[in-house]
Amino acid sequence: MSNEKSTLTTRQGHPVRDNQAMRSVGERGPATLENYQFIEKITHFDRERIPERVVHARGTGAHGYFEAYGRIGNEPASKYTCARVLNETGVRTPVFVRFSTVIGGKDSPETARDPRGFAVKLKTVDGNWDLVGNNLKIFFIRDAIKFPDMIHAFKPDPVTNRQEPWRFYDFVSQTPEALHMVTWVKSPWGIPANYREMEGAGVNTYKLVNDQGVAHLVKFHWQPKQGVRNLTAAQAAEIQAGDVGHATKDLYEAIERGDFPEWEFCVQIMSDDDHPELDFDPLDDTKRWPEDKFPLLPVGRMVLDRNPENVFAETEQSAFGTGVLVEGVDFSDDKMLQGRTLSYSDTQRYRVGPNYLQLPINAPQDKARAMTNQRDGQMAYYVDADAGNRHINYEPSSLGGLREAEKPAKEYHQYVEGHLGRYQTSRTQDDYRQAGERYRTFEEWERDELVANVGGDLKQCPEPIQLRMVWHLWHCDPDYGRRVAEIAGIDLERAKALPPLQGKPAPGQLRNAATYTDGRAETSTATAQDAEIGETAGAK
User: Which one is the CATH code of 442-535: 2.60.40, 1.25.40, 1.20.1370, 1.10.3470?
Assistant: First the structure.
């Protein structure tokens, strides 16, 4: 591989001076529509494959229903949201759920070490609500402009057509925010036993808004009533030797025999501000909200009780988008959410067609029938307009046609102020802290599996990538870095002697590193919290 570096440009030949962040109003403000560099990058990425999905190509799905409890924890749900789907009890909202793997193609094995997609389409009386997430509660990156780079690094090499570990770790070694997700994925949690015994999460931060226009930040979670079960690499290899679609089979057969899988829908809630008391930004999707501070509050339950009649018409043509929200659920300024909201729907228009929402699997239920002034396009087969006057396909008009809905008594208005520019979050302490905490809270067998997987991968990587990855892992937890170095045959002292990544502060400058009571680390800046972590290392 050549070390010669050329300048990155846009497809128009313009030099890219910042490929790490979208333009936004201040560090925590919303992204803007004139994000030309990002829009050109993400829309080209959406069109890289036809006709299967670029990501989440391998999948299966099922129909079911959602029932709200009418409460969020011990409070009426209406305190936080005016969304009827979360407020009204005794109503069964139809749902369709698509489970998937992320990186592999349509016929890839379901035993792959990979995040699992968990996409839910709720067909509410107020229109569709799509909650598009994963089984793990975080992600690799926090700014959507990096998504094509991340997927390219994880997909097969364009020359060898093989997934090469060095490509994955080359990207991760230069992207410390990914360390937390890597720690999850390379542990047994990276291979769920099946789709029924798997958690789900919206991953991104959203907002709940009540009828008084008051907003709260929220994270959404699906907790399986069947429990959670994961596989070791050896168990996955044994299954894969006889069946590459075991999870699809398991879900289908469970529903056919009447063993309907069920999940409890939970939320975490915090006030709608920047929370400077936290070591992380609550809009950062690479971080988990600590459940001791922000507990999982039950909101409702979801049951899957019917298999698709036609996999292509339903599962493959089902189309989801993070921008598909109902009143009472709103966007936060999470930069991954803002970028996904453009990308997902753009992908569906390209992959399925501009009228993908006319397909029965994607159309809202009859009580919320779509009526727009949009017309025609490829594969249009009905006009979604008011039958009263089909001549009028514009608004306003004095001759009939569609009109705007009534405005609520109080609307949610977000105040935004800041300088327009490209910003990376300055609160990166938990790029290392949360990954280290995750390592320490795993059971011993999970840690053994994690270090064996990462160490085995690093054996196949060039030395610069090996050393940098061990440097990162040692800063997450000294035992984590040491064990991986031993397995991969990497000189730990050489790795520890590396300087910080160019342009990024050293972890020790970001957080008070833990002083472990078993002597694993040598620091003088421990906090009481860090010392407690060290004393309880290994506890589940």
Answer: 1.20.1370
Of residues 420 and 141, which shows the higher confidence score?
141
What's domain 23-358's architecture? Beta Barrel (2.40)
Residue 161 structure tokens:
């057509």
Tell me if 254 sits within 8 A of 232, measured CB to CB: no
**The pLDDT value given to residue 511:** 40
Judged by phi (left if over 0) then psi (alpha if -120 to 50, else beta), residue 346 lies in alpha
Nearest to 513 by CA among 428, 427, 433: 433
Amino acid of residue 127: G
The answer to whether the annotation marks 252 as part of a ligand binding site is no
Q: Please list, in sequence order, all residues whose beta carbon lies within 8 angstroms of the beta carbon of residue 99, skipping any fewer than 6 positions away.
A: 59, 60, 61, 116, 117, 118, 119, 195, 198, 247, 251
Residue 168 binned pLDDT confidence (cut-offs 50, 70, 90): very high
The SS3 assignment for 85 reads helix
Name the least confident of 53-67, 344-358, 377-391.
377-391
Active site residues: 56, 134
The DSSP line for 432-494 is HHHHHHHHHHS-HHHHHHHHHHHHHHHTTS-HHHHHHHHHHHHHH-HHHHHHHHHHHT--HHH
Packing angle between helix 36-46 and helix 147-154, nearest 10 degrees? 30
CB 144 within 8 A of CB 185: no
8 A C-beta contact, residue 63 and residue 307: yes
Average pLDDT over residues 188-193: 96
134-148, 242-256, 373-387, 444-458: the lowest-pLDDT one:
373-387
For the chain, the domains span: 23-358, 442-535
First vs last Cα of the chain: how many Å apart?
43
Burial of 116 (0-12, 13-18, 19+ CB in 10 A): buried
pLDDT of residue 171: 97
Q: How far is CA 215 from CA 210, 270, 409, 414, in A?
A: 7, 10, 15, 9
Which band of pLDDT confidence, cut at 50, 70 and 90, is reported for residue 525?
very low
Between 531 and 487, name the one with better pLDDT.
487
Q: Which two tokens stand for residue 6?
A: 């050329």
Query: CA separation (Å) from 336 to 139, 203, 280, 382, 424?
Result: 9, 10, 16, 34, 12
Closest CA to 359 of 406, 327, 318, 403: 318
- Asked whether the beta carbons of 221 and 276 are under 8 A apart, the reply is no
* Size of the chain, expressed as the number of residues it contains: 540
Q: In the structure encoding, which two tokens stand for residue 3, read together?
A: 């070390």
- Find out whether 299 and 327 touch, Cβ atoms under 8 Å: no
Mean per-residue pLDDT, 498-510: 76
Predicted confidence (pLDDT) per residue in 281-302, tens digit:
999 999 999 999 999 999 999 9
CB distance 320 to 463 below 8 Å? no
